[in-house]
Design a protein that fits this description.
Blueprint (H helix, E strand, L loop, with lengths): L1 H15 L5 E9 L3 E10 L4 E9 L8 E6 L5 H6 L11 E3 L9 E3 L5 E9 L5 E11 L15 H27 L7 H28 L7 H25 L11 H28 L15 H25 L5 H18 L1 H10 L3 H26 L20 H12 L1
Antiparallel strand pairs: 1-8, 2-7, 3-6, 3-8, 4-5, 4-7
Helix pairs in contact: 3-4, 3-10, 4-5, 5-6, 6-7, 7-8, 9-10
Length: about 425
């Protein structure tokens, strides 16, 4: 545990080296009166600091303003969205020509609170304005550079990235030292290695996204969306592995059915395509003013709940059929199928469970809860599957199906099928 903490500390030290703060920096050139939304930031319950640099030209110095709106204002998002020179809303704070820009302004609050930044000039034109706004949160060496609704997520991503590497290395050792040497069936663990590799690739991309955010590098939404798509692919491939395992991939020579294979692949491909579409729609259609949320906790995302529910029902149905094909002389496999179906049915419903949980938490906790909870469930069930398919000689799930002559029954079945053709 101390070694893990040391690694995390080193990674964080490298990450935040030469980092300043979250900054909104840019120029505004307008020939007409304007109201421009700049961005938002969530200060935590201990508050934080704002440093403002405004370089107005001499034509605008007495009319341009930086307006700050706190979420203490009722329906603040809708009001800021509709804000214009004709539709005014009393701001929580104003920076103008009389503001002292040589000092650091403190923000205090009793809870995590969103602040929305708007620059407005409604009296004179043309406008040539430069702005540079730095925002700090109260917190440790990493959290102070993040909005409160994002805090703890980078640390979680880094932790699960390292945990994924450990699990992959352990699985590779299992394959090389135990499965092959003891002539055990390692198909499930080999597939799980591929799935966990995709999982840490998506986490790596999420982590890179945090580096870009902290260093104020504009990468847009595409980078984050690629990580989302790989994550959705990974989750559905894990679903596919669970479906095949429940249908007897390593425990029965009769698991392979053309009809089942077609249904399995159709459901998974449909789920992947639906997830990619919904994630894309949510990420690119969501106004920047609204905080990021779990894409399934949205109106389009609710359609995916039905798909996950049907996939779970199909998983249970196929496992019930597999259970009935087992005879009473196979009590170990029957017991496994009961436990396996119950445990992993919960996981297959996890997108719905996470979506429901995030729906009922406050806005500044939604993304944090969904991101950490999803990865926690993923890696918890990766470990559970590894325990089920551990490479021990007495584990019936990894023992090759042999006849009395030591020939694998699956090979006999495949040979017979080829002869019939």
């Amino acid at each position: 545990m101390n070694k893990i903490k040391l690694i995390l500390l080193i990674c964080f030290t490298i990450l935040i080296n030469k980092v300043s703060s979250i900054r909104y920096k840019g120029e505004i050139h307008s020939r007409t009166p304007f109201t421009q939304y700049i961005g938002n930031f969530c200060f935590n319950d201990n508050g934080g600091n704002i440093i403002v640099f405004l370089n107005w030209d001499h034509y605008n110095i007495d009319t341009a303003r930086l307006l700050l709106y706190s979420d203490t204002i009722e329906n603040v998002v809708e009001k800021v969205e509709s804000l214009s020179c004709d539709t005014m809303v009393q701001p929580s704070y104003i920076f103008n020509q009389f503001s002292n820009l040589s000092k650091i302004y403190q923000v205090k609050g009793q809870r995590d609170r969103y602040w929305y930044l708007v620059i407005q000039n409604c009296e004179k034109s043309p406008s040539n304005l430069n702005y540079d706004i730095s925002l700090y949160n109260d917190g440790d060496e990493l959290n102070q550079y993040l909005s409160a609704d994002q805090q703890s997520v980078p640390q979680a991503h880094l932790f699960y990235f390292l945990l994924g590497i450990v699990l992959i290395l352990l699985s590779i050792v299992w394959i090389g030292q135990y499965f092959r040497n003891n002539k055990l069936n390692g198909w499930v663990i080999e597939s799980l290695i591929m799935i966990m590799t995709l999982s840490i690739i998506s986490i790596f991309l999420y982590s890179l996204n945090w580096v870009y955010i902290i260093y104020n590098v504009p990468v847009g939404k595409k980078f984050f969306e690629i990580a989302n798509w790989i994550y959705i692919l990974t989750k559905n491939l894990f679903f596919l592995l669970l479906i095949y395992a429940g249908q007897g991939w390593t425990t029965s020579i009769y698991y392979n059915s053309t009809i089942r294979n077609c249904i399995n692949l159709f459901l998974i491909v449909f789920n992947i395509a639906l997830g990619w579409s919904l994630s894309y729609i949510y990420d690119f259609e969501k106004p920047d003013i609204k905080p990021y949320n779990y894409y399934l906790d949205s109106l389009p995302g609710y359609f995916s709940f039905v798909a996950y529910g049907l996939l779970t029902a199909y998983f249970i149905f196929c496992n019930v059929i597999s259970y009935r094909t087992l005879n009473d002389a196979e009590p170990i496999r029957k017991t496994f199928l009961k436990i396996f179906t119950f445990v992993f049915s919960i996981y297959m419903l996890s997108p719905i469970i996470v979506g429901i949980i995030t729906h009922f938490v406050v806005d500044y906790m939604k993304y944090k809860v969904s991101a950490i909870l999803n990865h926690t469930l993923d890696f918890t069930f990766y470990i559970i599957l590894m325990i089920f398919y551990r490479p021990t000689a007495g584990n019936a799930l990894v023992t090759k199906l042999l006849n009395s002559y030591g020939i694998e029954l699956r090979e006999i079945k495949n040979t017979a099928n080829n002869q019939e053709i």
